[in-house]
Amino acid sequence: MSSVRERIQQQRKELNKQIFKSYKTYQGAENLVKATDSRELKEKAVLELSYIQSQWAVLRDKLQELNSKIESYQNSDGKTTFIMLAVGLKDSVELDKSSKLRYEEIILEHYGEEPDNYEKELQQYFRLRAEVLNPPRNEDGVRLLKTYFNHLFIVENRFFPPDAKSNGIFFSWFDCLCGTLHTQFSIDFEKACVLFNMGCLHSQIATKQDRSTLEGAEQALKHYQMAAGIFKFLGKFFVDTPCPDLSEKCQEVLRFLMLAQAQECLFDRIALSESDEKCNNSKLLDYILNVVESYKNLEIIMRRNTDVPQAWLVLISAKHSHYMAVAHYYAAKLCVNMATFPCEIYSVWVENEKKAKHVAQAYVDICVEKHVEALRKVKSNRHLKHIDSLVEILQHAASRSNDFSKIMPRKEEDLSIDFLNVQPLLVLDPSKLVTEIEPDFEVGEVEDIFALLGPGNVFNARNNWSAPKKVVLVRKNSKESFGFTVRGNAPVAVEAIDIGGLAEKAGLIGGELIVNIDGEDVKWALHKEVVALIKAAGNSVTIHTVTMIQEESKFLTL
Q: If residue 543 lies in a helix (H) or strand (E), which one and from where to where?
């Protein structure tokens, strides 16, 4: 049975298919406008282009609606907790027959191998990529993405030469925020998109945790930090990408979003672990101030990115107001429970109990005002106002502050307005700030799918090879030498040729690599294994060799 998140991703795929179809139609109409001299055809094509553009606008709005379904990613098993934001996975166009054909051409042209012998390997690679496009929404899904990410370096080594602009293999991915399709003849683009989905998956796993428990809060904290680490890595090492969601600006937004939510999870964890009320108010206040600052900075950054869903921006703004209110609530409780005077409360000097109560009243006023502000923001958004759990939490917090305000003493006549409006909660403790967890892409030893091509340090896209040369050596008896010696391991190379011997007459040349002996592939064979095969051949042996050549790359450059 599919989860809500998987159904949303399926809806995203359907939208992307429609966008892709429109994109192809748009290209056709655009080419027609450029190619035709017929005025009538041009007018029809321009009209078609206008229609497709309006269609794109509708599809983009639908995608925004999908990205605004925040409640679908939340945990529904435990107690109600403040909703968090998760990022939807990027979708891709599956590699088609033309891509498979291009891989087969490289195997034939570059490596001189028969493509049919690699049918199993190609199917395994294509199947792995298809699985990556819809991974399980759990730790297994993260491992699957890591496995494929590591395989991409192997595929790059085998099929993507560093000096060529293109080898004819392309990758197409949809932007997860605005739905535009982007195609690149670059495996780095594929790596970036897979990493992006890895960060998204961590955000979904974190959001799905039951943060009403200590273990759930811990897990959510960890996964948000891991997501932040991946988005930071993307923004640092993958630059000039065509997709808006892979841009440095968007990665900054997503990184700050994950860190702010991680900061909130840290506060949740501390709140669950504290029991003594006095310690509770003081310690919680220290941590919640960092939550307030994190959401404040995030809101500023989000407003600079137009692709961010409006519901996200409103929620972050509401959270900033809400946690500002909660911070002042704890500060007011701290003032009320103060027993030793004079003292300083977050840069405000309190000489006696009377002044402490006045400061508490000022804090409560700010608290009530910010709670009203948070509720107003949520109710102004057509998506957020229908999330009952969100409205319920905000109303409960506002009600608690109003009840506290009612039992506070009335303001004294001699208390100045300037003092009542003071905003003292500005002192932050950097030691309580969360940081990113650096991404770890290790998943154990990754099997080289294309190991049959030979050792990757030799048989790769960087090195060019001659076509395999067949050499047949026939001697009169076992006492006669074949006329050559070998050296090295995996692969074994021809070392020396006896002048006038059988090998020289058959065309064997020193330095050639032996890849096959009597039909058995020996690219991975050790020296002693190759020698044993030659000896076991008797008086006739058939050897295939290849030679590294210095010439321009055989790869197609577009």
A: strand 540-546
Q: In terms of residues, how long is the chain?
A: 558
Strand pairing class (493-497; 484-487): antiparallel
DSSP state of 284: H
The long-range contacts involving 533-537, CB below 8 angstroms and separated by at least 24 positions, are: 534/482
Residue 180 near residue 19, CB atoms below 8 Å? yes
The reported pTM is 0.84
- As given in the structure block, the two tokens for residue 166 are 């293109």
Contact predicate 502/474, CB 8 Å: yes
Q: In angstroms, rounded to a whole number, what is the distance separating the alpha carbons of residues 264 and 287?
A: 9
Q: Return d(Cα 384, Cα 71) in angstroms, integer.
A: 9
Q: Which of 187, 197, 145 is nearest to 165 (CA)?
A: 187
* Ramachandran quadrant class, 506 (left: phi over 0; alpha: psi -120 to 50; beta: rest): alpha
Count the Cβ atoms, other than its own, within 10 Å of residue 63. Answer: 24
Cα–Cα–Cα angle for 448, 450, 452, rounded to 5 degrees? 110
The number of angstroms, rounded, from the C-alpha of 321 to the middle of its chain's C-alpha atoms is 30
Per-residue pLDDT tens digits for 474-511: 988 888 889 999 999 999 999 989 998 999 999 999 99
Q: What are phi and psi of 206, to 5 degrees?
A: -65, -45
Alpha carbon distance 516, 503 (integer Å): 16
Question: CA-CA distance, 515 to 206, in Å (whole number)?
Answer: 50
Q: What is the mean pLDDT of residues 378-400?
A: 92
The first and second tokens of residue 53, run together, are: 């553009």
Angle, helix 214-237 to helix 248-273, in steps of 10 degrees:
160
The rounded distance, in Å, linking the Cα atoms of 118 and 449 is 10
Structure tokens at 358: 């006045």
Q: Rounded to whole angstroms, how far apart are CA atoms 197 and 208?
A: 16
Contact (Cβ atoms closer than 8 angstroms) between residue 543 and residue 468: no
Q: How many CB atoms lie within 10 A of CB 23?
A: 19
Check if the beta carbon of residue 536 is closer than 8 Å to that of residue 504: no
Question: How do residues 195-234 score in pLDDT, each as one tens digit?
Answer: 999 999 999 999 999 999 999 999 999 999 999 999 999 9
Residue 540 dihedral angles phi and psi, to the nearest 5°: -140, 130
